[in-house]
Amino acid sequence: MTSSAPTAQAVRAAAKRLSGHIRLTPLLESDALNARVGGRVLIKAECLQRTGSFKIRGAYNRLVQITGSGRERGVVAYSSGNHAQGVAFAARALGMPAVIVMPADVPQMKMDRTRALGAEVVTYDRATQSREAIAAEIAWQREATIVPSFDDPDIIAGQGTIGLEIVDQAEAMDAHVDQALVCCGGGGLLSGIGVALKDHWPKIQLYAVEPEAYDDVCRSLEAGKRVANPNFPATVCDALQTQECGEITFAAMKELGVRGLRVSEQEVVNAMAFAFEDLKLVVEPGGAVALAALLAGKVATKDQVTALILSGGNVDRQTFVRCLEAAA
Amino acid sequence: MTSSAPTAQAVRAAAKRLSGHIRLTPLLESDALNARVGGRVLIKAECLQRTGSFKIRGAYNRLVQITGSGRERGVVAYSSGNHAQGVAFAARALGMPAVIVMPADVPQMKMDRTRALGAEVVTYDRATQSREAIAAEIAWQREATIVPSFDDPDIIAGQGTIGLEIVDQAEAMDAHVDQALVCCGGGGLLSGIGVALKDHWPKIQLYAVEPEAYDDVCRSLEAGKRVANPNFPATVCDALQTQECGEITFAAMKELGVRGLRVSEQEVVNAMAFAFEDLKLVVEPGGAVALAALLAGKVATKDQVTALILSGGNVDRQTFVRCLEAAA
After folding, report:
1. What is the mean pLDDT of residues B107-121?
2. Which side of chain B, N or C, has fewer Cβ within a 10 Å radius?
3. Alpha helices per DSSP H over A103-246
4. Contact across the interface for B276 and A282, Cβ inside 8 Å
5. ipTM of this complex
6. How many CB atoms lie within 10 A of CB A296?
């Protein structure tokens, strides 16, 4: 592995930087869910995080390490929504200007909130324009720092702090985690969490969960090399519409022995309805894929302790209602 | 006050009995909400409690103190839903039979879940039948113990454990609570929480929040004596359709200097939508009235620390969708 590979030490350093700036989200357990799967399920409710998703962790850990005149020149990021809010929040907290390049078709709530956090939003067309090119042009003009959404050691280490919290919270609940299910777009969340969990529980099995239409990590792990998704098929999981995972994240996932799981759109909305009814949590489609895989029986859970991440809750009312109505 | 008046000591004893049987629910803070009200708001997310509401606390504290042959003969309770689930859960945990008398028009989810917890459900017509008489008849036949839903020292002490948790959690957040907003049906929750909070913060101002159609506590506090609601007007807050508060709870609320606040049906659904969008929590109508009062500006919040309870999340999909659609 390269020197950019995520380490447990980097995750612990990130946790120190984040202390006092993020919320310790609860690790919940549901009597109904435990009974249903015949084991224990520990649910990390990261939808309750500031900005409504985990993305603030990586963003803050990255931005706080930009010093001197770099701070005044600010940052540029491209994101379908949650990373946008994470970067905007961290930039405001640190007094830095931020420009966010967002697809024009992103949920309105995510765009409104990014602007409400003080960031400048520049929109583009997912089908015809390159967000990387737009961001690079802005960064060049302003001498600003580009903040990638997943393939960056500091971003990965920041997201990994969720893993450290799970370790502490699970131990306090007398639970030894056998397996963890994590949603996967670019792989930053899973790489970071995986490193932290595996450092504490070396035998843990990690799963990357993807929507069927964006199963590049499943296919990449099967092929042993990175393969991309075809151009932007439709999915309700707007947060997971990533064309391919990163070089650093893919290497990390291979090293961690990650396995891939695919969930259907129907399984995703069913999981959102379960979270609504049993957990009393609002989970966005992309944030519900790990729960979807569990409920659909894609891993053996009997007598196992399974940890899973509900990674975000940024969903419009209309979309949420549509998902509840489509659920079984 | 009588010897049945709730005390901080009784609440602390209840907390010991409940330890390991209930969940420590998070005390959340929202950046958006703090900015909106110009102060700090600490949100006790009791909708994340086992059975989806706070009622398990009082029920368990009451049932665990039934010993000997009383345990085999079991319990009878009447409830519109949340107390039913709390009693059913506690009875199952203690191996006791439970009969729950429920209005026939209660949300289906609450009835299904009460049965799923192993309780026997007997239904009645809110408009024409007396639940007290039905419960008394069953209790007489079976020599079972009637578990009241609020006017009982052990029930009140159990609900009050939420107050102890708020004290610990707020102190850990460097917050000194100036005022607390609590939903009010029969007054058990507010009496218990109030005693615990006032024991720690003697100057705290407590508010009972009611739907306009069920404002008996507001009117009772104004009149200095208990007055009842007219027979069952319509409200979306099914959990707060109480005809009048209790003798013990009313005496406690007077002693605690509680003030009453009324919220409209529109303010309730607006609060549910706010909880959905900003807090990522599913809150049932009756559980959202305290937040509704805050958002509607019914108390001064500038530079104040306000604690409020989201007391439950047991709401059908259809009702939830209807509320979101009716919200501003």
Report:
1. 90
2. C
3. 108-116, 131-142, 153-172, 188-200, 216-223
4. yes
5. 0.95
6. 17
Q: Which of residues 164-223 of A touch B (CB under 8 A)?
A: none
Q: Which residue in A295, A286, A284 sits closest to A318, CA to CA?
A: A284
Determine, for residues A280 and B325 on separate chains, whether the beta-carbon distance falls below 8 Å.
no
What is the DSSP annotation of B148-214?
-SSSSHHHHHHHHHHHHHHHHHHHHTT----EEEEE-SSSHHHHHHHHHHHHH-TT-EEEEEEEGGG
Max alpha carbon distance in chain A (Å)? 57
Strand order in the sheet with B27-28: B27-28, B40-45, B305-310, B179-183, B205-211, B259-263
Our answer to whether residue A311 is catalytic in this structure is yes
| Residue range B295-313, pLDDT digits in tens | 999 999 999 999 999 999 9
- Strand (E) or helix (H) holding A122: strand A120-124
The residues of B annotated with a catalytic role in the active site are 55, 311
pTM, two decimals, is: 0.96
d(CA A93, CA A111): 19
**Residue B60 sits at the chain A interface (C-beta within 8 Å):** no
**What residues contact residue B134 under an 8 Å CB cut-off, 6+ apart?**
B78, B101, B122, B124
Q: Which of A109, A283, A321 sits opposite B324 (nearest CB)?
A: A321
A314, amino acid identity: N
Beta strand A27-28 with A40-45: parallel, antiparallel or unpaired? Answer: antiparallel
Contact between A281 and B280 using a beta-carbon 8 Å cutoff: yes
Q: What is the distance between the alpha carbons of residues B103 and B232, in angstroms, rounded to a whole number?
A: 12
Reported as a single tens digit per residue, the pLDDT across B124-133 is 998 899 889 9
Return the half-sphere exposure (C-beta side, CA atoms, 13 A cut-off) of residue A19.
Answer: 7
Q: What is the DSSP string of B121-135?
A: EEEE-TTT--HHHHH
Judging contacts by C-beta atoms under 8 Å, the chain B residues touching residue A277 are 109, 317
- Give the Cα separation of B134 and B255 in Å (integer): 33
The rounded distance, in Å, linking the Cα atoms of A266 and A323 is 9
Q: What stretch of H or E contains B41?
A: strand B40-45
